[in-house]
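Protocol check, entry for the methods section draft. Step 1: assemble the input record (protein sequence plus ligand SMILES). Step 2: submit for complex structure prediction. Step 3: store the structure tokens unaltered in the notebook. Ligand used here: zinc ion. Step 1 record:
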Amino acid sequence: MVSEKRSLEELRHVGPTLAKKIRRWIKNAKRPGRPPELRRDFLTLAGSRRFLQKHNDWRKRLRGDLQMHTTWSDGSGTIREMAEAAIARGHEYIAITDHSKGLSIANGLSEGRLAQQRKEIDRVNRELKSSGTRFTVLRSTEMNLDPTGRGDMAPSALQSLDIVLGSFHSALRRTQDQTERYLAALRNPHIQILGHPRGRIYNYRLGLRADWKKVFREAARLDKAVESDAYPDRQDLNVSLLKLAAKAGTRISFGTDAHHPWQLEFIDLALAAALKAKVAGERVVNFMSADDLRGWVKTLRGRG
Ligand SMILES: [Zn+2]
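Step 3, stored output:
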């Protein structure tokens, strides 16, 4: 607005005093230098959208979102509200990935509550079907993994789900190489997607180190997916690691990690990051139909 010589008072809540202050800030602002490591390689939502506008064909291939939380754990939308927000965005499916019991701080679900949740998901699916909406709510969980790659839920409870995401939420500030923990997590027969792999958070936590080539190659060999978590302060995997994953031919899963219905819009960050990293569309799990997704999970489970 300043460069267009427009009045800053066009902005809401900006009067003459504040307008003058903002002009002074902008005039005196220095060009930002290279940001500290904790803030590097993050995309902006506006930048991602500008980039995607030129690649509408890529955006159109998206069929669903594979990580989100509801009021069952630490989210603030109901399953129905998340489904409606996804339908409004044109998705064909979503996976409900509430936390598992080991993450009690996030009100993680026990096997019993997960079974209870099934009733609600089945009801929402029935209601949507009877109203003529072609949309599927997939049953999932973001299972908490300990640093040895083991999960905290009974295998029988996991088998009843459509898909299982596994994530680390502890010992995320270790500075030694963590390759072994990733290999162990990928080899865990009960998970198909490794959630927010590095565990980085903008301006707060750098994330774990590993021999990523090795990790992605192992994921590709096992035909499992690594997640591109689109939550703005995570963006994990980031573009540079997605490039390595693309080279290894690893499957990539997009998840907004939404904790509120409006946050489904974060998906643009994952779409843009994968495209910038030249991930092949055939490797994006979310470009598959819900049926093909289930087929993939079934094949993986068959291997045990
Ligand atoms: Zn998580």
